[in-house]
Design goal:
Elements: H1 6-28, H2 34-48, H3 63-68, H4 72-82, H5 90-114, H6 118-121
Helix pairs in contact: 1-4, 1-5, 4-5
Length: 122
């Protein structure tokens, strides 16, 4: 059943990537050293996302950290759809979708503000 949600999962991941990409690329034109912080942040976010381990292995008192990560429901739905083991729910996917919309909206606003001075800072 969850395997049929594959197009939705790809759309959510692409939207999150696009939103964060717009924000980061807009900010790095003015703040060049942000590249180093982003590379560190991506590494840290990879360990905070349950790619290698399932959410069920996280102790209960730390599970809230995984639950606020917008990638967690997407990864868990991939796991439920293709491996048959995972904690997938439509409510958590709704959280990821809402987070994606907010990130893309903020990214477009930041891009439109910074776009006017791109050529001056580059």
């Amino acid at each position: 059943m969850w395997a049929l949600a594959l197009p939705l999962l790809i759309f959510l991941m692409a939207g999150l990537g696009l939103g964060f990409g717009i924000i980061i690329s807009s900010m790095t034109t003015k703040y060049r050293d942000l590249n180093y912080l982003v590379s560190f942040g991506v590494s840290l976010w990879m360990y905070a996302s349950p790619v290698i381990y399932p959410v069920s292995t996280i102790p209960e008192r730390w599970r809230w950290v995984a639950n606020i990560n917008p990638i967690t429901p997407i990864i868990e739905t991939f796991r439920a759809g293709f491996l048959g083991a995972g904690d997938a729910s439509w409510a958590r996917l709704g959280y990821s979708a809402a987070f994606m919309i907010v990130v893309m909206f903020i990214g477009v606003i930041i891009f439109n503000r910074v776009e006017k001075t791109f050529i001056d800072t580059v």
